[in-house]
Prior knowledge:
By secondary structure, this protein is mainly α. It is 70% helix and 0% strand.
Amino acid sequence: xxxKVIILIVxxxxxxxxxxxxxxVGSIGxxxxxxxxxxxxxxxxxxxxxxxxxxxxxxxxxxxxxxSEDIRLSWGxxxxxxxxxxxxxxxxxxxxxxxxxxxxxxxxDYQFYLLFxxxxxxxxxxxxxYKSSKRLEDIWLALLMYYALFYHFFSVTGIRQTLxxxxxxxxxRYVKQRRLLGFTICxxxxxxIHKTALIFFPFYWISQIKSVKTLFLIVVTSFPIMTAMGYQxxxxxxxxxxxxxxxxxxxxxxxxxxxxxxxYFAVGAIAFWKYRKDNTFLEENSSVFNAFSIGLFLFPxxxxxxxxxxLVQYYSxxxxxxxxxxxxxxxxxxxxxxxxxxxxxxxxxIVTTGDEYAFFWEYFMPMQ
Length: 368
């Protein structure tokens, strides 16, 4: 928790320094300042995640064991695993070992591998925020929201899905460019790393829905239905995956990520309310708003298994952009009041969340 607060403070001070040098939003100097801040934030996130101790995060050490084993496998054994997984149904996500093996050509050091994984996710994530915002504050606000909502999903755990999500974020450029082949190739690669990436494939068409408000209303209306029928929906997704590893998710039972869902909905609702009469803005940014809506549609699955919150992350990560949307000046919209409340809520979430962190060179034993 303390390191996150320190990073937020340091980034805030750097942002203020840049704002004092470049005051005109949209000017060449201001855009250079935004790029500097985006790079600064990306570097800090990469270092924080990549330099973590082996015992930081619930599965970092398990991934270390897999890494140590997989890089010693022959290429023949790795490709044989594709047959075992996709023909015999033994194991899962054979493509992940390929990533590890390819990286071992450069280095067999696990710490460097963690830095590589962190770079893979944070570069496209910060690029998304940078390209979808206009102000320096938007980048800092996105960092604040990331720490409150997504830190545990991407910074310290879930390396396979982190790489799959990174590939999907990279594929977003092909959505904007309307290049289906490039998008399909990226999703196929992501699926070999983590099968859940398939759920992002329909986004190529969903992103183009211009009736943004209609989609949002349909999702809100269907939320109770998804909550009631979550078990059946989860079971079908597990069956479609073709792997027994995912079947158990439907039977786990969970109270769901209620706080996350409420905050996610609140931020989205504020953004939709602010731009409810600005159809031009909604259409221009339809892909981001539609990603939010699909994320909200999938959230009830977490009531069947807390693991299925990860299924939502392919879409919910786009909410980082909403902080910039809310921060934008608009007539009669209480920006300062709403942003102040959001900042207080996010800060409270960060401060009250119990985190254990240590760098790899420190002595560290996690609390049981």
